[in-house]
Design brief:
Blueprint: H1 3-13, E1 19-21, E2 28-31, H2 34-39, E3 45-47, H3 48-56
Antiparallel strand pairs: 1-2, 2-3
Length: 60
């Protein structure tokens, strides 16, 4: 997966307020809406690192 794909996901998540800041400043969780649950394997929330791994499974 390339960097532009991750940036596109991040750019979509931020304005829709799906990101949830955690206490630790460098970790951010992503709340999945219905469209993202299909990509995230029905998980309700993932970290940015998990998001990269899960998205890469769908991108070739």
């Amino acid at each position: 997966m390339n960097v532009s794909t991750v940036i596109a996901f991040r750019d979509n998540i931020t304005p829709t307020k799906l990101s949830v800041p955690k206490e630790l400043p460098k970790k951010t969780n992503i709340n999945a809406d219905e469209a993202l649950k299909a990509v995230f394997g029905s998980k309700n929330q993932v970290t940015m690192f998990e998001m990269t791994k899960l998205v890469s499974a769908h991108v070739k």
